[in-house]
Amino acid sequence: MSLQVQGAGGGLTADVGSRIDVRGVTKSFGATRALSGVDLEVRAGEVHTVMGENGCGKSTLVKILSAVHRPDTGTISVDGRTVQQMRSPSHARRIGIATVFQEVLTVPGRTIFENIWIGARTTHLDKAERRQRTTNILTRLLGEPVDVDAPIESLPLSGRQACCVARSLVADPAVLILDESTSALDVATRDRLFEIVHEMTGNGASVLFISHRMDEVFEISDVLTVLRAGRTVASRLPASSTSPDELVRHMSGVEANAERRSSRPAGEVVLRASALRLLPDGAPIDFELRAGELVGLAGLEGQGQDAFLKALRGAPALGGGRVRRTGECDGVVLDKPSVARRHGVAYVPRERRHEGMFEQLAIGENFGLPRLAQDTVGGLIQQRRTFRRLRRQSEPLRLKMGDPRDLITTLSGGNQQKVILARALADVPKVLLLNDPTRGIDQNAKNDLYAVFDDLSVQGVAVVMLSSDVNEIVQLVDRVLVFRDQSVSAELTGDEVTRSNIVAAYFGSVSDGARDTLEGTGDAEQNLASGA
Amino acid sequence: MVLGVFVWGSVQIDGFSSGPSVRAMLVIASLLALASLGQTLVILVGGLDLAVPGYITVGAVATAELAGTKGWPLWAVAVSVVGVCAFAGGVCGAICHYLRVQSLVVTLGMSSVLIGGVIVATKASNLGVPPQDISKWTFVMGETLDVPVPPVVCLAVGVVVGSWLFLAHTPAGRRLYATGANPRAAEGILIRTGRVWITTFAFGAAATGLAGMLIASYSSGASVTIGDPYFYSGLAAVLVGGTALGSARGDFLRTVLGALILTALTTILSGMGLGEGDSRILFGLAIIVVVLAYGRDRRLRDRI
Predict the structure, then answer these.
(1) Which terminus, N or C, of chain B has the lesser number of Cβ atoms within 10 Å?
(2) Distance from CA of B130 to the nearest CA of A (A)
(3) What's the gap in Å between the CA of A489 and the closest CA on chain B?
(4) Which chain B residues contact residue A153 at CB under 8 A?
(5) What is the pLDDT of residues B83-123, one digit of tens each?
(6) Cα Rg for chain A, rounded, in angstroms?
(7) How far apart are the first and last CA of chain B?
């Protein structure tokens, strides 16, 4: 069947075999033009990846295909139906399009089973069948049986995101859209999801995949489409004959630069952790951080790196231990985040939306909040002072924004993250703690941040960066601590900081032979942790 | 929208736009708005205050009994009302924040405690009449510094300016918005969100108690149910004004505009021969319509 209905701007007939056919679609939100002319053809049985920087229109395109938004002009055919005929996301789902978003959208206080079937309208399945289907899919995704009646909070972040994926899979969709939804999955769950994806496409389903991670993209994709500034700039590139550099050129017009930065001599010790135990019976961790050092924290999800980073910020570790700010601060104990901040320790949180930004507030307000006293005269905040500070901080970060009075949500994800980083840097920290700062932002924004971190270390700031992207750890850091079982399983320095060494440390003691095999077969790429 | 309602009223009802009529509506809207200042702040910080009737009753009964019957000076009554209400509000804020209990539940309980306390204290006897000193604040034909505007209206205008300065231009106001918008992120940048909740609930309760004193003077008396209509109408004014539940968007000016719209609509409906029941239906419908309109951009189901 191939039914074709026109959008406001005219119509083209969908090709036979096209599952999704998008032609010349435009979409504006007020004065902002999100899509200026997007073409996309997804065929049955393929994994089709859409790439592009934040703000290029990927999310808008996904929302149009999920019937959250409607296009202004252009034509969209999905298996012969048009989005104009789909009135709501639930309607899109009924006709076979299921979308998993980057955000982990679960309902607290409900069970895993309820979370998976929330919003579903499956009258043809009784509860026993739905339970069976839930158990089967979750077992495949999580690699072990799960009590589906347990509260959703009993699962870690990766497990909760797996539930979001399962919510789409139980509908047995003809088109599965994964919109950066792998960023919150740990590596093992992600690999199991990819197996399911291969199986689905083998059975004729289509998968529209969006990710900022090159390793994932080349691992799973059949074809690639690149968007830039709301337009399609490259269409249906075969993944097997396209290089990462070529893809980056399409996305940004800039050559990829993945060279490892050269190490610089470190200064005095500025932070010292002694006998830090992340669990009451955990192994003690001793750690020294020197001025100008850039240290990476890596590991599979939930292995302790997150708790360690927060302990450095003054949050008490479960098993005790002390963190001291040494050097000019004369060994003051950092037992609270407020004490740490007073002594030059700044922290950038992981989940931008939940922990970092205030969506209802303007860009300037988001930036100025922690240092209101500095901008206050006679009891009243002088907005100009805030804006002046913001502009000063935004230049090195290459933060692109219009009026600082605009809501922060008018910025792309990368620029939102830069506002949050600018807010932390406004404290002029001596120690900067970054919790996965480049998660979910585009490559250009990542490169901007890498340059900033590098500059900071040159200026003598000690930087600790937890990252779920092994590439950036290899590229950036002087030293990396790899976590496993709530402890440091390996500390790699200088030339030891390689992908294979980090991956080997993720999985415990891997022999040299096995390590070589991993690297040689490319499995190392597959096993790169997503952390999250 | 306010202008539209007034134009409609002028066309529908003779004398709607006459001086005395406008003054009366301004006095009622001012009282409604002042009684809703606390609710506005509590909603902005992420809660909902069902203890409003309790605070109003405390303020109103204290004015009638302590000032009217026992002859206490008004300042002493005001200090007592502020003390009792602020303490009760602060307790609500602390319980909600530290014990993670819904503000709906805690404030409902507190309202019952306050009204019960008033009944016990007054032994449910006949209450006195507020003294003349406070009644002149709410005279419809009253003047402020020889200007023919009732003092309570000028007070409401002053509170609008003050609250605007506070919310938009002071660090405390900014922290209040931040706490309401994203408490987790607020704690992340070391805002003491517990302190923000306690002070907001306490300040809101004290302001509502003081509004209760004015309400008693306008009503020339007090009863233990005097606060009930101001809770429902006040919440409607906050929501119709555009301060949405759980959104940390809005301010007191919007509440004043909501109060003006609802007061004018009530006057129009009364003029058209409709009674209190119809007014309540109107408030209910207004809340539903507005919540539907404001809630559209927050629908999670669009993503599921």
Answers:
(1) N
(2) 37
(3) 29
(4) none
(5) 999 999 999 999 999 999 999 999 999 999 999 999 998 88
(6) 24
(7) 35
